[in-house]
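Ticket 4471: requesting a sanity check on a complex prediction with arginine. Repro inputs:
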Amino acid sequence: MNLRKTIDDRITAALAGAGVSGAPALVGPAGNPKFGDYQANGVMAAAKAAKANPRELAGKVLANLDLSDLAEKVEIAGPGFINVTLKGEFLTREVEKMGGDEGLGVAKPQAAARVVVDYSSPNLAKEMHVGHLRSTIIGDALVRVLRFAGHTVIAQNHVGDWGTQFGMLIAQLVETGGDKAANIDDLEEFYRQAKKRFDAEPAFADKARDYVVKLQGGDPAVKALWQTFNAVSLEHCERVYQRLGTLLSRENVRGESAYNDLLPAVVADLKKAGLLTESQGAQCVFLEEFKNAEGEPLPVIVQKTDGGYLYATTDLAGMRYRAGELKADRVLYVTDSRQGLHFQQVFAVARKAGFVGAGVSLEHVPFGMMMGADNRPFKTRDGGTVKLMDLLEEAQKRAAELIAAKNPELPDAQRAEISRVVGIGAVKYADLAQNRASDYVFSWEKMLSLEGNTAPYMQYAYARVRSIFRKAEDIGTLTDMTHPSIRLDEPAERALGLRLLQFAEAIETVVSECLPNNLCAYLYDLARSFTTFYETCPVLKAEPGLRQSRLALSDLTARTIRKGLELLGIETVEQM
Ligand code: ARG
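Returned structure tokens:
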């Protein structure tokens, strides 16, 4: 059960009962636990809108509100806050239910949505860079959370596998001996050399252009070369995916080229809809809502003077496909925030043209840049792009040092495995724990710290709870955890129980706002509530009934942390 939402729904209904309909109750966790568990802040705004006295309105709300099944106290405070304190019995029963629930209290939605998540989406002409790393990590977490919450998710890797630069790459491929994958071992270098020749050698440039024409014309030999190049490039990406442990596979690849044949129809239909304007030879859509600093409307160019199509044209075709063929209710685009205007524009054009109906939600899920310690875009020491494989390699190496210092007795193989899980987890968690909209500073020290909201801290918290069970097993006290009888008499037990129940709320906010940092913050709070509990409530030394309850709370904490991390794409280990 989503506690916050349940209370919010009831107070919102009571507001309507008190004569102010349409005003939200705005229920959130209480600012200060002294005053209760949840607090409604919406009465003041509702009173203002209805020109009523807020405290009086709050009184009327209370008269219309029945929370007796779950609350022991409902009070008006200050100018018109409503504070709710939950009943111990109710919390106890809910925690018991959560203990027996695979879904850990996350209810399936009444109607599952079909959600397309467009993420990772690197350009195959070049090596994947840190922007794609962020997209991959964030997108993958969203896919996992949405699926767990009961939605149908279609992951789409919208790779950049089309465009004029492929002519140059094919020319280079042919000149370096054809189709041997080994030639493209270093994609970045391969691209650089092709570009250098393209700029310096007119004959090479002519060949490159000729390949573009042939590729667009469907010449089988050129197409085969193009496919070879893309296959090799995609394998590069897949090595990164595998190392990261992401869900993406070949089946999720639907690149720009897949929409190629649909582009003429996109332009023709925009024309039919009366949306096209020719500007300096190019076909453009001008929308009133997008203007530059001088107040002139900004164009969305869909076809260049030479007949070529653009990134936006492909996205329009893609939206039509996702809404029409994939029957999406929601489409998420996980890219860096610099593409914000692009998405606003193509979303607006797609709606105007009727490519995407009003029932489909189009959402750009932007993220900020990854910065180095110097607060400048993340680069190697000599200013080059950081190879993602090297980055992940280094993460593991640094994690190995951490683990060796922390637990030198572990056998080598186990330590290597822990280092992998901690190193990769650290890179992912550092990215996910930040509000994605802001830039974030990449810092090995911070992400591998055992203190604070980090992967090692969370993974260690999990391993620590599990160690209680290894001990419990030793002394023969471990029993069935699925139908525990819970007691929440101590304040720290009650606080932990309530925190556990809030897992469903954390999941819900990730689903609705696409902000995985809410889940990270929740897990961190949970781990801290557990620490307080463990410091004040003896587990193994308690009398048998209480011991079972406390073991069950510990078990549920471990399961919730493990599940939460799993939903972020992060593994756990039993021992660290
Ligand atoms: N390939 C693009 C890039 O590297 C990202 C594509 C995002 N998806 C989309 N449908 N436009 O910037």
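Notes from triage: The chain has a mean pLDDT of 94. Leaving this open until the requester confirms.
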